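Form 7-S
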Amino acid sequence: MRQIARPAARLIDTFAMLTAFLLIAVSPSWGAQVFDFRVPASPSDAAAAISDLASRLIPVYQDSDPERYLTNLSALQMAVGDYAAADISRQSLRDRRRKSDFGPPVSRALVFDIYAHAKALEIENKVTFADAFTSSFRDSVRPLDDRDGFAVARWLGTPPSVYRDALQSAFDQFRSRDRIDVEEANLVH
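Output:
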């Protein structure tokens, strides 16, 4: 498990940045607000820019759909590195879904749950990410049957380049702009 901890972190960090960027770029929840944002040259240059933008959005983010709100809020929280808050948001989302039988029993969302919890454990318990990830993975996958456990492992095996390429493509769509105007940026929905 320790051998997949770092690749999983790169995968999820990149996917969280993609999710946060697309959320920021296309969410109708921002109304007519415009946010200054210079699109980074590449995903490897994106962490600080997306973190900065996400930190400006968290205080004003709203969505009438509680499922979507918690999903998007946790992505923004991960983008700013507030993993304890993201872990709480992900737990609230899991609790809501468990109570309402919403969605499949196991989905790719579990990867975000594992990661947010591992990052929160790493900081809270002052342990290595590999140890925290191993603990979070085991706690999350142990109750699953073999088929679902294999699916989670397969999702974690997705090459980070898949999400880096998607993030680069999203950046390229917005490259000529200095700002993101959400009313005109509804390109992905």
